[in-house]
Each structure stands twice: as structure tokens, then as C-alpha cells.
Amino acid sequence: MSFVEALKSGNTDNIKKYPKADLHNHFVLGGSREYILGKTGYEIKPVSEPLKSMSEMDAWSARYIGDHFNSTEGRKLLIEATFAQAEADGVTVLEVGEDVWGLGQFFHNDIGELIDAFEEAKERIAPEIELRLQIGLSRHCRIGYLEDCLKHFWGRREFYSIDLYGDELAQPIENFIPIYEKAAENGLVLKAHVGEWGTAQDIVTAAEVLHLDEVQHGIAAVQDESVMDYLAEKGIRLNITPSSNVLLGRVPDIAHHPIAQLYRRGVDVTINSDDILIFDSDVSKEYLRLYQSGCLTAEELDAIRCCGLRSRKGSGEPAVLSRLRRGTDIK
After folding, report:
1. Taking residues 69-98, what's their average pLDDT?
2. What is the edge-to-edge ordering of all strands in the sheet holding 189-194?
3. For 188, which DSSP code?
4. Are the beta carbons of 109 and 103 closer than 8 angstroms?
5. In DSSP terms, which residues pair with 216 in a beta bridge?
């Protein structure tokens, strides 16, 4: 059975058997609720109705996450839960990491301890997964504070990428230019959350001033054909999270999600989970929802899946892609 046939069968167990990437996962909210329940007896319930704002999402997070995991051991448990979720979902490339403020809050300002927490959990729970460790920045934080935190991260080759997230209107994107220049010097893939709540032009501005390789969300690009063409021409990838977009009221439903228009316009898009604990949105479910809603064909979804497995670094490619290009089915 191929991935296309697995989608058409409607069986998530079959879909989970095929390699997939998850390039947009916030590990605090991105893990397995079953794993957490089994380890702690604590049940975390996903939202069942669309939220009206980020404030409502923050209220959900305060209720179910809050202080429950506000310790080094709690943080490590959430990391473990993320690898358990990815392993169960057939994710073979996982891009995930800690917010820079978490280094002092949970890991005693010891960058080795932070890195070890992710790598040890990966080796114990999901050794076959390719971990792409990410540096996370909260957009509301002062630049000087972020720069001070980042002193511990620079020069560590374990990190693959850097990402900026949070309220898109918190401060001008131009404020982050010095940080992204330093990140580029460190060879990181440059990413930022843009165009989830902002405009199509915001995406272009962020891409140009920060020299972005990838945009998290970026769905507002569909508002402007010239922006879609810009992204396609520049090869800037959009790491999209469909269920999250629906449940945060950014799009009306999965069937009308702009990922289809973006993909058919030539934009490089990937399909990801975002916050699994909130949105019940593992990657296999996302593919199936997009197919069953009629948003994208099974063949289009398979092509998107394979593109997501490509690395943005170097000239090499994962073995699974080499097999695909030779015409060998990926299982």
C-alpha cells in the first residue's frame, strides 16, 4: 500500500506507517496526552470549539498546563511526551526546541543540560527520528534580554534553526535584525511566525529584513497573488498547521484552507501539528483531514509530505528521499 492508498483508505494507522516531517511543533503543547496521562494520571483535554482569540488560547494553556509542569522534571516530561507522540505518528523528522528563557528557568543556564534533555529523550523513546533542534524566541521579550540569553546558544552546532513566535504585533520585526544576522553567521535555518494574524505584506517584510528561509503559518499570503509569487520565486517555505488555523478562527474550515491555493501557486508548503495538546492535531490526522475535506488530492498531499522530508541545510537529502527519487516506494 502506498501513502496515497493509505489516505484513500481513511485509516490513520496506515497513514502513520509512512515517514512524515513535523517542522512546526511547540513541544510544551506538542506531545502525547496519553503519555502524560500514563506518567502522571493528569488528563489534558483538547479544545472542541473554535477559539475567538489568542487570549482564549492562553486561558486554555493556563488551565491545563499552567504550573503543572513548571519544573525541570516537568519540562523534561513534556519533551519525552513530544518524542512519544512523534514516534507513534510516524514522524521521522522533528523540528522542536526550547524557548531561550527556558534555559535559565528550567536548565540552570546550562546549555549542555538543555541539549542533553532533548537528545537523551530522543535516543530512549524515538531513536530513529531525525531531531532538528531549534532555538525559540518570544516576540514580546526585550531585544537586550534575548541577546543576553542567546549568548549560551551561539556556537552550539547541535542547533538547526531559530524561530520567532508570539504576538505578531508585539514589536516591529525590524528589531530582530541583529539577532537574525548573528543566527545566519551561526549557520542556522531562519524561521519566524508571520502571517497567521498579520497581513500578506507583513510576510514579505519579515522575509526581507530577517532573510527568512521559512515562515511558520504564512497563510495570509493567499490575500495577495504577488506575495504568493514572491514566496514561490524565493523558495521560502511555509510550515502550515491547518487544524490550528481553523480552531483559532483564521480560516473557516479545512475544506477551504488556503494551503491548496498556495501549493497550486507553486509555494513550498509543509503540513504540521503546531499544538497537539490543544488542537488534537497530529500530522497524520492533518493529512487525512485535508484529504477527506477535498482540500487537496491524495497525490498532492503525498508530494507535500515528501517535500517536508528535505533538509534546508547542505546538499544531501534523507535516504527516504533518495529512494523516492529512484522510484522506490517509501514505507
Report:
1. 97
2. 20-22, 91-99, 130-138, 159-165, 189-194, 214-217, 237-240, 269-271
3. P
4. yes
5. 193, 239
Coarse DSSP helix, strand, coil percentages of the chain, rounded to the nearest 5 percent: 50, 15, 35
* Contact (CB, 8 A) for 143 and 180: no
pLDDT in tens, 273-286: 999 999 999 999 99
Q: C-alpha cell of 134?
A: 531549534
Is-contact 67 109, C-beta < 8 A? Answer: no
Most distant CA atoms of the chain, gap in Å:
53
Report the alpha-carbon distance of residue 313 to residue 66 in Å, rounded: 36
Q: Is the pLDDT of residue 14 over 80?
A: yes
Cβ 217 vs Cβ 245: under 8 Å:
yes
Residue 319 has pLDDT above 50, yes or no: no
* Contacts for 286 with CB less than 8 Å, ≥ 6 apart: 241, 242, 243, 271, 272, 273
Residues 6 or more apart whose Cβ sits within 8 Å of residue 306:
321, 324, 330
Collapse the DSSP code of 289 into the 3-class scheme (helix H, G, I; strand E, B; otherwise coil) and give the result. Answer: helix
Percent with pLDDT over 90 in the chain: 85
DSSP 286: H
| pLDDT, tens digit (0-9, with 9 covering 90-100), for 183-235 | 999 999 999 999 999 999 999 999 999 999 999 999 999 999 999 999 999 99
Query: DSSP class of residue 274?
Result: B
| Per-residue CA distances from 315 to 6, 195, 310 (Å) | 31, 29, 10
Q: Are 92 and 284 in contact (CB under 8 A)?
A: no
